[in-house]
Amino acid sequence: MRTVEGKAKMADKSLFGVWGRLLRVDLSSGEIGVDSLDESLFKQFLGGRGLGARLLYQEVPARTDPFGQDNALIFLTGPLEGTLAPLSNKTTVTFKSPLTMTYSESCCGGHFANEIKFAGYDGILIRGQAQSPVMLWIDGDQVRIRPADHLWGKSTFETFTAIRNEAGDPFIESVVIGPAGEKLNRFGNIMSDYHRDFGRGGGGAVMGSKNLKAIAIRGNRGVEVADPEGLKAKVLALYEQFQKTDRAQVRRRYGTADMVDFINGLGFLAVHNFRDGQFDQAGNLNCSTIEKEALVAHSSCLGCPIRCGKILKQRSAPFLAIEGPEFESIALLGSNCGIGDLDALIQATEICDRYGMDTISSGNVVGFAMECLEEGILKPDDFGGLNLKFGDPESYLQAVEMVGQRRHIGDLLAEGVRLAADKLGVPEKAVHAKGMEIPAYDPRGCVGMGLTYATAARGGCHTKSPTMGAEALGDRFTTEGKAVLVRGLQWQQAIMDSLTMCMTSRFGMHLKDHLALWNLVTGYPIDEAEAEKTGLRILNMERLFNCREGLSRADDTLPHRFLKEEIRRGPSQGHVVELEPMLTEYYQLMGWDQEGRPTEETLSSLGLDTL
Amino acid sequence: MKVLSAIPEKCSGCRICEFWCVMEHHNLVNPVKARIRILRQPEEFRNTPMVCHQCQASPCVRVCPEEALSRDEKTGAIRLDAEQCTGCRLCLNACPHGAIAYDQESGQPIICDLCGENPACVRVCPEGALQYIGSEFVDRSRKMQLAEKR
């Protein structure tokens, strides 16, 4: 056991809400220590995603092997966690991704982040590689690397239960990987709290490469804020704001599944490996069907009155119950695979969670495999005789399981759609950006999402600038004005992710509310102009990592399918994405050169020129 | 007399009650000092609010060897006489609701005091899973639930 140094006390600091302490663990040497994080880091990068980008840049040099011992996994909290601030429950994890081979960050709701805070840390940085399977056990100041051979090979669910039982403490919080992460599935995820995931980018595979099965934590330290009375009043007002906001109440009732009819109706849903845009069985998977047929309970992350988590149960054997599938899983594991059978979709989600792999990437690669079979590029023999077809629940479930186990063609699919398609000689069928599988929104029916996917630092991700709401209200096919829209949403999302607020908070909260919470908690006021600068600083920080890895304009692109092939049916039929004009304008707005490199002037205006 | 009552089936596990409870009593957030706790068992999709029910017979009061605990006759809230309490934790084990915690700093139990007859947890629960109502009406939500299940 290791006792780490120093009792932290928040009141000694001028910045409340943060400890200024980063737990550092080297799994190769077994060394454990605490780094102090200077207050200026929080003032410049806030926490979570922003701080992670800053730390990764200094920790992980160019060309580092994502599966090597020099890669870092940096779990971070935000300044609002451990306080009354609502919807502040995300933990971020920043690392170099084995899927994109560059910067990646993923976040996860639940209860883990707050427990890190109560244990007296702002985050946990893990480097090195253990010789054999281990877990990290953090009991406040007592930190121990423990053997985990007995947990290796276990499903995520079994691992959570084993951790709570072994500790004899049902209040312990943990993050774990499943067999997918252990087997270096490049979209293996890290799960928390049984049903929540750090879904994207393959953080679970990085954890697997370090032989780290789990992190368990509990704490007993209190978190103080600068203005307790002001915070209470603000939070009560925000509860009311959520109650009065229709979008928040729709989400409270249905979760994210309310997006199915909206996106399918406009014809930009991922369907049949992103060929169709509209799914004729969407009615089987929409929110009203789910509520009527499968909903058994609601589930919340910490401090959230919206509780978008929906517990769904199959109507037929084996009567599995699981939290989710949420919208992205419905689209990728559902419509993208032609699956309109709700029970099969619930089961596929359960398989992904059990093995610990991203539902978006899983549905994307299985849809890709279905198309390859349809066109004779793959044969049933590649699937051990399985005749995998769009819309066939039985073969589909076996295929998802195959990916989890890396059996047959599943071994290749677990490398991600980019590598798999390259190997099969059909890169034009791979739907990814920078190697990360594209999520539910087909950008040909919502072109701003095309710019979103092309420019998100972590690759094909919808959360970094969700333009669909604004675009649906205006002209969703024009490229005009989309660069401005994307830039604006990107820096605001960077603020939200760095405050580690759930993005659902935008249904009822605005930037001024996010900043008010920061101000009341930390006692260091930031205004909207400073916030924009901070958001841009974070985006540029991420960009600097990617530039150092050698990425340039050529990498800020979209799959062949979106640029050259028209959507085959529905209200977005006939459209493609004209990316280049948006990209040119976006680079100008960002103060980057036309190769996508931040200019000296841009960096110096953000205080990043000394890096 | 009013009592605190929890309806586990309605609880979504957000723990907003815990955080406000500690804020109310300590002006900071630290769940180990909360007078209400939500035991979450996500594998079973179960959330169990654990809080003092102001039992009439008060096993905690009866078991205390130092007579440090008493039940307020008017409100039913359990009162702790810090002078008398030795921190023996017999009350903690006697409580049928698992509602008593232990404060490492004071070396004494942590028990709900009803926040001056205006419990913070009830005020902020977004699910209506906590009630502060007359004990003669405490059965009604349960009855409604059973009827809805039919």
Task: Explain what you see.
- The complex is a heterodimer of chains A (611) and B (150).
- Chain A has 611 residues and is an alpha+beta fold.
- Chain A is built from 24 helices and 18 strands.
- In chain A, a hairpin with a 3-residue loop joins β11 (190-192) and β12.
- In chain A, α17 packs across α19 (482-498) and α19 (482-498) packs across α21 (528-548).
- The longest helix of chain A is centred in the C-terminal third of the chain and has 21 residues, at 528-548.
- The model of chain A has no long low-confidence stretch (mean pLDDT 97).
- Chain B is 24% helix and 21% strand.
- Chain B has one domain (2-149): Alpha-Beta Plaits, CATH 3.30.70.20.
- The model of chain B has no long low-confidence stretch (mean pLDDT 96).
- In chain B, the strands form 4 sheets. In chain B, strands 1-8 form a two-stranded antiparallel sheet. In chain B, strands 2-3 form a two-stranded antiparallel ribbon. In chain B, strands 4-5 form a two-stranded antiparallel ribbon.
- By secondary structure, chain B is α+β, with helices and mostly antiparallel strands.
- In chain B, β4 (69-71) and β5 form a beta hairpin.
- Chain B has helices spanning 16-26, 59-63, 90-94, 120-124, 140-149, and strands at 2-6, 37-41, 46-50, 69-71, 78-80, 101-103, 108-110, 130-134.
- The A-B interface holds A 82-84, 86, 111, 118, 157, 160-161, 170-171, 193-195, 220-225, 228, 232, 236, 239, 296-305, 307, 309, 311, 321, 323 and B 12-16, 19-20, 22-23, 26-33, 37, 39-43, 45, 104, 124, 126-127.
